[in-house]
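Report of the visiting student (M.T.), summer placement. My assignment was to run the structure pipeline on a short list of targets and document each run. The first record concerns Diphthine--ammonia ligase.
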Amino acid sequence: MKVVGLVSGGKDSCYNMMKCTQEGHEIVCLANLYPSGGLDEVDSFMYQSVGYQGVQLYGEALELPLFRAEIRGLPLNQSLEYSLTKNDEVEDLYQLLVKVLHKFPDIKGVSAGAILSRYQKNRVENVCLRLGLKPLCKLWNVEQKSLLDEMIHDGISAILVKVATLGLDQQHIGKTLVEVRDRLLALNAKYGVSVCGEGGEYETFVLDCPLFKRRIVVDDYCVVTSSEDCGPVAYMRLEKFHLEPKS
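After the run finished, the structure tokens were exported:
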């Protein structure tokens, strides 16, 4: 099946594409939604936006067409089950996939990295149903500790670009999944922190994976910090980055 890969820059969307290809599907292009107005991130219930600056290299890294559009809608319909709602952020995804299908009408499936959020999965399924596409959520309900180790073992090279939970702070920004794995497991045992970040505890940016033809190198970034109810929040603003050949 020909598939469009929804990419956020994070580990889940990349690993889901890997799973799709392992099952014989063909990723023919990529689709990404990013904040409007030059914001670093948006308060979205659907989309990861931290690190979006680097997603512009994904098309070149995977040697695939990359379709991008701004997130202009808001999370207006917050019911678990979604129905078409004007100016909702979900409609940005619908419109982006309409553009993708115009260029690639033979696409039949959508790769999405949903793991635990029924809210997100329902919305992807709603958009797919309206467009006659099949949602491919290969990570859905997989046990998270095993999934994290599987990602690391299978070659997902990702760094933390946002932290927003007790036990993680700005010193962990830029750390790899390998470097923070044991800490995540300890925080899970002590506080119930989601090992894969499904509660928004952290977000990642993938620098390399087996699907990449070239890897991404971050040359320069800054760390932005703030205080929220959950504790200190810090995120990485990617400023300079480039592609280089894989050794």
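The beta strands are 2-6, 26-35, 66-71, 109-111, 134-136, 157-163, 202-208, 214-228, 231-245. Helices lie at 11-22, 52-55, 58-62, 89-103, 118-131, 144-153, 177-191. I thank the supervising group for their guidance throughout the placement.
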